[in-house]
Amino acid sequence: MKPIITIGYCPKCGWLLRSAWMAQELLTTFTDDIQGVLLHPSDISGRFWVNVGEQRIFDRNEAGRFPEIKELKQLVRDMVNPGKSLGHSDRR
């Protein structure tokens, strides 16, 4: 079964648009590899995190920053389709 990616974000911080843009990028890149992307408004202020299934792959509080989209695509790829080429977003 293909995983669902969940993006948790703080609506009070105004991070919905950032989360929606990241969801769009992931849906475009991983069309055949994921079931979908769920945007999850957090009850806790200042939160931003990304899960693939139940696995947390990024947490803003731990990293102290938001992920770059290139980095996020690499993290998702490594979980859902490690052999997939990301073109210009691949590590060099």
Automatic annotation (TrEMBL):
Keywords: Redox-active center. It comes from Nibrella viscosa. This is SelT/SelW/SelH family protein. InterPro entries: Selenoprotein_Rdx-typ (IPR011893), Thioredoxin-like_sf (IPR036249). PANTHER family: SELENOPROTEIN DOMAIN PROTEIN (AFU_ORTHOLOGUE AFUA_1G05220) (PTHR36417:SF2). SUPFAM superfamilies: Thioredoxin-like (SSF52833). It comes from the Bacteria.
